[in-house]
Amino acid sequence: MPPFTLHNKVALVTGSSTGLGKETAACLGRAGAKIALNYANNKKRAESTLAEFHSMGIAAELFQANVTNAEEIDSMATAIEQSLGPIDIAVMNATPAQPLKPIEEYDWAFYQQMLDFFVKSPYLLARRLLPGMKERKRGRLINITSEVFLLGVAPFSAYVAAKGGQTGWSRSMANELAPHGITVNMVAPGWVPTERHKDEPQEDKDEYVQTVPMGRWG
User: pTM for the full model?
Assistant: First the structure.
């Protein structure tokens, strides 16, 4: 039995066809939530994830959307509400590639892409979901953030700056929405052994683990 139940709750996890988003969605699904799996482009991979969830007895459906686009977010949310019901939980997990580069090699378009995913996307999704959550006097918004902002990891300035913005936004929104029964929380995992990190050099993996007090990934 799971340590808690989300029976009949509807949970949207953005960027959930693979990696951390997939595992997060599976956890929520095993706790009883109906899962809205979001993907941007790779339909074949998303369909494979959906089949895997169904084989585990998890109620889930696929919803395609670019979560940095307001119209696509609105259309996705409407489709989820019509198919699964009102969205109770939204996990903002979608992320682009995150290359480490000195600042001279980043152009502003790349900075903007980071800000679009980690500040604009949570804003757009929250703005779309909040009317319903306020009416029900309950909602859960969860941002997947990162320790890189607190550590000032380099050379990683675009990602670090965007994660800093996401962190500040989450804290402000938590204070703003608490009176409405809506919580805004952040989860800042370290490196998690998912597809994104499978090609990382073993030397880098070993070096990272040495910085973790528990001596493991995550």
Answer: 0.90
